[in-house]
Amino acid sequence: MRGPDTTTGGARDILRLAVPALPVLAAEPLYVLVDTAVVGRLGALPLAGLAVAGVLFAQVTTQLNFLSYGTTARAARFYGAGRRAAAVSEGVQATWLALAVGLLVLGAGQLLAAPVAGALAGGAEIADGAVGWLRVALFGAPLVLVTLAGNGWMRGVQDTVRPMRYVIAGNALSAVLCPFLVHGVGSWDGWGLEGSAVANVVAQSVSAGFFLRALAVERRRAPADDPVRLTPDTTVLRAQVTMGRDLVLRSLGFQACFLSATAVAARFGAESVAAHQIVLQLWVFQSLVLDAVAIAAQALVGSALGAAHDEAGTGRARAVAARVTRYGLLLGCLFGVLFAGLYTVLPPVFTADPAVLATVPAAWWFFTALQPIAGVVFALDGVLLGAGDAAFLRTTTLLGALAGFLPLIWLSLVFGWGLAGIWTGLAAFMVVRLVAVGLRARSGRWAVPGAVRT
């Protein structure tokens, strides 16, 4: 079965893929807000325990999201080449990898939950709550990774609608169950903080079950002469692990930067770290929208390269890259204008503290000015990820972190530059990435034709 030859990578195609992808990206942050509100009624200690445990568990999806992005790149190439069954087989192999890594995370997490939570919590009571939540929530780790793999191959075959339904169904059920499992109903007092973790596992079971069922349906529908392989394929798994290694290292670069920024901001006082948190969360919000565009770029570029038979045939992938970049720039400019106009409106929504509000401008105008750059960088990240150019993205991200972000952040602490120094570091990081991905995209060396990029 061939991929859709009518796909041009125009605005309609990008919206078709990006709009359903956005709720998937936003589902987890929105559920965390619901979870926080429910657990918050238990008191400060359970909420503190959830905060510590939630940060630790979030590392599972943050560091292992190669199961989505790497799988999308490889599946999209097969899809563009007209080999849907091979694209789905990439999803099968990614699912095997997800289960293996998930079981490893589950085992290691059970062993390390107490010492790691104790080191972060700073108090025995908070640590006890965090460990109790983690020990239950970790049973959902393999299920979370199966969902990431499912998102990956479905994006590769240019289907972002079903993943949206699957993820929303799981999270909606969890949101309904959470208050009852935490606080109880009738004469039952509920399970307290651990009830929140149980609700999480239920959501992850439902979503993962839908993705596994989708693989089974694809296998039944595959033609007899091009079946979907269900058994592990060591060659494919090795290639996925190699790409995963590069994407994990890239993700670690991001984590080092943003954790360092928060740590340095905290050393300038409560007002600085609070102001930094407000602006950083808005940055995370706008990145969801830009990530949705990048996901569309991954699927469209990968498909176009899979359909190309030689260097001359990569023109459609280059055209998609140019078009997505223009859309990213336009979206970034619109965000910049929007946030500039909301300067007096948004910060007071998060706090009424005059000292914090007085500190916000030191980061706000960096944040606003960086929007067009972020729009282009996210778009080109999607293009290069779709082309399977993970090694280049790994290297440039680490270069931007080591040469731009981290030195300026720590120098801002030494010389007392405050939030202005921290956000100058972020600006340097984004500019380094902009130059790197811009030159790479212009060179065309990423546009390697064929169903599989070696």
Q: What do these coordinates show?
A:
The protein has 454 residues and is mainly alpha-helical. It folds into two domains: 1-232, no CATH class; 235-454, no CATH class. 82% of the residues lie in helices and 0% in strands. The protein has 17 helices and no strands. The chain has helices spanning 11-40, 44-63, 66-80, 84-121, 124-137, 141-156, 161-183, 193-221, 234-266, 270-307, 315-341, 346-350, 354-359, 361-369, 371-386, 390-415, 418-443. The protein is globular. The model is unreliable at 1-6 (pLDDT under 50).
Question: How would you describe this structure in keywords?
Answer:
single chain; 454 residues; mainly alpha; 2 domains
Secondary structure topology:
Layout: H1 11-40, H2 44-63, H3 66-80, H4 84-121, H5 124-137, H6 141-156, H7 161-183, H8 193-221, H9 234-266, H10 270-307, H11 315-341, H12 346-350, H13 354-359, H14 361-369, H15 371-386, H16 390-415, H17 418-443
Shape: globular
Give the count of structural domains: 2
End-to-end Cα distance, whole Å, is 23 Å
Strand content: under 5%
Please give the radius of gyration in angstroms: 22 Å
Order of helices and strands: HHHHHHHHHHHHHHHHH
Overall SS class: mainly alpha
Mean pLDDT value: 89
Strand elements, count: 0
The largest β sheet comes out as:
none
What count of helical segments does DSSP give? Answer: 17
Low-confidence stretches: 1-6
Q: Summarize the amount of helix as a percent range.
A: over 70%
